[in-house]
Amino acid sequence: MSADADEQSFLADYDPRAFPPVAVTVDLAVLTVRDGQLCALLIRRGAHPYRGRWALPGGFVGAREDLDAAARRELAEETGLDGHAHLEQLASYGAPDRDPRMRVVSVAYLALAANLPRPVASTDAADARYWPVADLRDGEHPALAFDHDRILADGVERARAKLEYTSLATTFLEEPFTIAELRRVYEAVWGVELHPANFRRKVLSTPGLVVPTGEERATGRGWAELYTRGATTNLHPALLRPRPAA
Amino acid sequence: MSADADEQSFLADYDPRAFPPVAVTVDLAVLTVRDGQLCALLIRRGAHPYRGRWALPGGFVGAREDLDAAARRELAEETGLDGHAHLEQLASYGAPDRDPRMRVVSVAYLALAANLPRPVASTDAADARYWPVADLRDGEHPALAFDHDRILADGVERARAKLEYTSLATTFLEEPFTIAELRRVYEAVWGVELHPANFRRKVLSTPGLVVPTGEERATGRGWAELYTRGATTNLHPALLRPRPAA
DNA sequence: GTAATAGTGTCTATAAGACAGTATCCG
DNA sequence: CGGATACTGTCTTATAGACACTATTAC
């Protein structure tokens, strides 16, 4: 009741046996674009609970490990990522019953990477592959384990939103890339068709977004100029996705 | 090494004594606008560590308590908030040494509320008051306890960004309010001056953002029309803050 | 009167949506 | 040839920034 009741609860925390056991994990929503579709890396669980169900990759946070470091370690373990991928914290999920075994608070991360050849089904899981998120949404495949449907949905929405005002779309591509390839990333992530001419004008009129290499690449028909990522990370004004009618 | 090494680590978690003790807390960045300044609610710590330092309000997450529920409970305890305040998860902070006593992972929340008369210095802390965030930034006052400077800075930036594309600014005001009062919220949060005429046009041209009551209020000089919050929560197009030069 | 504020109207620059049109290549 | 793609250019509309102007009130 006194002014340091707050402190007493902290002191209670100080005794390892005085507070309820909680595990802290990181879960990863790893997104990439494959064959024109936004895909998420999923792991098939080999044991209970949710045995046989697909789940986001993730794992325990080490005793003296930073949250970001744990996410980076898991990303490397699950994808064998060598190049630079984007990694950012997404949100935390801690419903008391989200894991039937014990109280688990999961700090979810969002990772964006260029098309990865091998899903690395070796290390930690029974199976691993990239699933188109559109298929998962349609209920065509069973729901994910735990609350991972929700986490993945939040991650996809974060990625969709960030394409509007950042240069993150370029992290889905290997350098160098063409303007049309960049446009197809936007189209895959947003699930819409964009006007090629207007998209091109918008991208090239944003200083420092992409840097022309001077090279060209033979595409399906014709030749397309090649670009690398520029220094600009924030888009002003934004490249807004088409709204579902006004 | 086998396909369920992942599972083994989960089973290890299942034994409460087999994983390192971690405490999960919620910390609140409670923002309000007082006297034209964006202010944050801070609590003066009455005990070690960081005794006497100002800190964000927060506390332990109950054994079977959801994260959001813990944040709502703490907000009610610390502010005595009766009316509707906005509350959303901000991010999680889990550097291994952020609390000298033990491993603590804090899930931070951002709360926005209308001007609150009494800081409620009674319940949990030695002292409590609203501090203008501009003063804290200038280093005019000592740094906050733990990593709360960082959390508060992240919360302020989140609030600033969300004013651009949501109707959240209205949660800083009691109804009914004038367009000028709403503008002063934007000016306080962003720390800039806005053009009154253009701001008015923008707000009134966004359908459903504010609803005229038909009443008027005597202001300093003259009469101003009164409005209440509308149903629109997302602003399209956004009300972008002035950028520090192009 | 002056100073400050609420509110209206207008001009201009910018940017986006729509679309015409050329050049190139594949089949 | 038709069809698809890379790329250029133009027209229209919507919006934001800047600013002129009136009305009202406090002092």
From TrEMBL, chains A, B:
Domain Nudix hydrolase: 21-158
InterPro entries documented for this protein: NUDIX_hydrolase-like_dom_sf (IPR015797), NUDIX_hydrolase_CS (IPR020084), NUDIX_hydrolase_dom (IPR000086), WH-like_DNA-bd_sf (IPR036388), WH_DNA-bd_sf (IPR036390), WHD_NrtR (IPR054105)
Highest taxon above the source species: Bacteria
Presence of the UniProt keyword Hydrolase in the record: yes
One Pfam family cited in the UniProt record for this chain: NUDIX
Keywords: Hydrolase
PROSITE patterns tied to this protein: NUDIX, NUDIX_BOX
Keyword match Amino-acid biosynthesis: no
Name this polypeptide is given: NUDIX domain-containing protein
